[in-house]
Amino acid sequence: xxxxAYLSMFVDHVFKFAITANMQHNPIFGRIAMPIFMYMLAMxxxxxxxxxxxxxxxxxxxxxxxxxxxxxxxxxxxxxFIEGADIFTKxxxxxxxxxxxxxxxxxLLFAALLIIIISSKKIDKMDKIIMGALLILGAxxxxxxxxxxxxxxxxxxxIDIKDFKRIIVAxxxxxxxxxxxxxxxxxxxxxxxxxxxxxxxxWSIAALPIIYYYSKVKTKKPTKTMQLIKYSIYPLHLxxxxxxxxxxxxx
Length: 251
Description:
Distance between the termini: 32 Å
Strand content: under 5%
Radius of gyration: 19 Å
Shape: globular
Largest sheet: none
Structural class: mainly alpha
Number of strands: 0
Oligomer: single chain
Number of helices: 11
């Protein structure tokens, strides 16, 4: 299942950044990847012996992936320094440049933290609401429009994939809410066109049959080598696309 998610994401990134060099290009291939990643995250949180170590691995994964991710979506040519700027200003410029768009690793980390907060038996209900709201707000400010992905992770954590009808309804509501939210906030003067553009997100529901099928397949606990490979594929594919972009002079 992870292979399907990575292939979907790879094709999506190749279309956006190596073929068209246009981030607005929105093929359907990449839509099924995110639900799979969020499902696997939710299952990982359920099964892990140490949620703290799990989150730390996600943080390291996200930080390693950030530079090649930024180079893929922005290109090094966009990094501009103010003429005559001192060293501290230049350092700040570099930090801002490489953190203005966060990769999927940070989204997974935010989702994991949200699940941990909501599912904790040590935090009372009101504190959960406050902490959860602050986390979602922070994720939105940093990630710009990822709240529906966090909602998917929580959905997979609490709703059994075997309850297929219920999970289809829940995901449809989440995706629809996201599309309407984008329609109202992105371009208030062109709501219908924006909704039409973001309606491609409905293709993400196509991931559910894949998840449902693989949830029935018994899998062995991955070895440390397999875990390393699993975490390495994402940054490596970003680096490959970066190299292709340099070769095609798209950076």
